[in-house]
Amino acid sequence: MIRWIVRSVLMLLVLATLGATACSPAKLDVVLYYPSGDDGSEIYQKIAKFEVRFAGQALDDPSGAKTEISADTNGLALNDIACKKEESNLPFDLRVVGFDENDNIVGSGRQVIYQLCGKPRNIYLFFSPLEQFSTLSRFRPESNVTEPGRMERIRAGHRITYLPDGRLLITGGAIIDGPGNFSETTNHTEIFDPETGLFEDGPKMKNARAFHTATLVGSRIFIAGGLDVQDGNVVSVGSVEVFEVNEKNELVASEKTATLSEPRAFHTAIVTPNQGYVFLYGGVNWDAGKPTINTQWELFEADGTDIGKGQIKEADRRAWHGAVRLVDGKILVAGGATLESDKWKALNSTLFLEFSDDDSTIKVSSGDAMKVARVAPAMIRLNDDAGARVLISGGMETKETSIFEPSKVHNTMEVRAATGKFEETLTMKSARVFHSINQLEDGRVMLFGGFDGTTMASGAEVFLVGSSSEGLKKDSVSIAQRRDRFYHSAMVLNNGSLLVLGGVAVDEKGKYITLYRGEIFNPRPPPTE
User: Fold this and answer.
1) In angstroms, rounded to a whole number, what is the distance separating the alpha carbons of residues 182 and 165?
2) What angle do CA 407, 408, 414 make, to 5 degrees?
3) CA within 13 Å, CB half, 394
4) Is the pTM value of this prediction over 0.85?
5) Of 306 and 116, more confident
6) Using one digit for the tens of pLDDT, what is the confidence trace for 191-230?
7) For 335-372, what is each residue's pLDDT tens digit?
8) What domains can be seen in the chain, in order of their start residue?
9) Alpha-carbon span 98 to 3, nearest angstrom
10) Measuring CA to CA, which residue among 86, 98, 110, 118 is closest to residue 47?
């Protein structure tokens, strides 16, 4: 396990002015921590100086500034940083970079701070090796004890959702003992604050659930469906719950609830392009051990008000599919599984869902088929020059009698081009299903974790993304994970790091272990003049 040890405390005394009126001096204590294993000790010995960079829209000059300090300094005062008026919701980007004696970068830490001129507070920067995963943990200097950065509960099939202030809400999850074996679900939620590195309890949900959806719309989080374990039986959840951030910046559960037209899990939820409704598509209704594929889509306002529903044609019904909203507002639905005569069937078909101006009616049309059928693929729309490409990675073909047991897991990733056609296929180093896919700030795409059909997929993979005309680099780079896992959740933080939480690991005897620890990938910082 990686332990973090204090190397330096940066005392940033910030005197910010709002127009002609000066704020009271704000004290920002920034504490750096290092991993103390081989990686951490190597950095510790190599660092000859630090460079502190700060920038952001909260400043009168968003390009900011930078300053150098020696490796053994204990403090730094940055004075007269001029903030914009009413800058409380604008970011202040602080990055500390460590250099060796030859000016090579050996490690970094970064934090994106809001309400710069607000209140004094402590900021914790995890200063770690570049291009590596580090176990999330936090050293408590007053007690000289390392606190592992971990959730309060073990959980898999949980969901991570951004809150408006940059904190993360973790909802639900299950303890999984084997393929399709759910021993317990939870209604517990917790909040992770990247600014402090701490987890705290959030409001409880009324229903325990896993493999649900949790969607941020404005200041509300719309939570729908999922799986629950009741009297030893797995059932789909038919309720909607809404959390909202109040005027005191507190996350509270709304008194208003809603009921789905059909209980559902393994569905998708996407915010509609015009009115900002929450659109639910597909899924499976598990009742007394018998699954049926959902037959209707549903539309809700973010506060839980039911807007409407519609019938899904039999050929278009599916669960365990992927879905993304395209730049033109249409939703692309890809792959998944359906039931035919009580037998599971993997799908390679895709659909386009086009909304009317008021988002109340939907036109469904067929898209270009994928080259292989994919159940539970990981899917992402690229933030590139055109924003039109979609990556669909991994996934499985399932046994007819068990959706949770693959007959084949794919090691390919298909690229849907701006033409609407699947024009490119990339080979991954590992076959993966139940994995995650995220795009980093520099445009690279990272695949993490997954199951390869026998055991856990080993190592993360990173693909370079070129322009639409250049395509993707076909040879990926492998990066060691601190813990191989699947059924986890992964999110790119405001500071550019990739956070991975929870999931399931399989030990050498084939036993499933549900996890509560997390890990963070620290990408290389951008070049600076």
Assistant:
1) 33
2) 145
3) 29
4) yes
5) 306
6) 998 887 889 999 999 999 999 999 999 999 999 999 999 9
7) 999 999 999 999 999 999 999 999 989 999 999 999 99
8) 4-130 (no CATH), 148-377+489-522 (2.120.10.80)
9) 19
10) 98
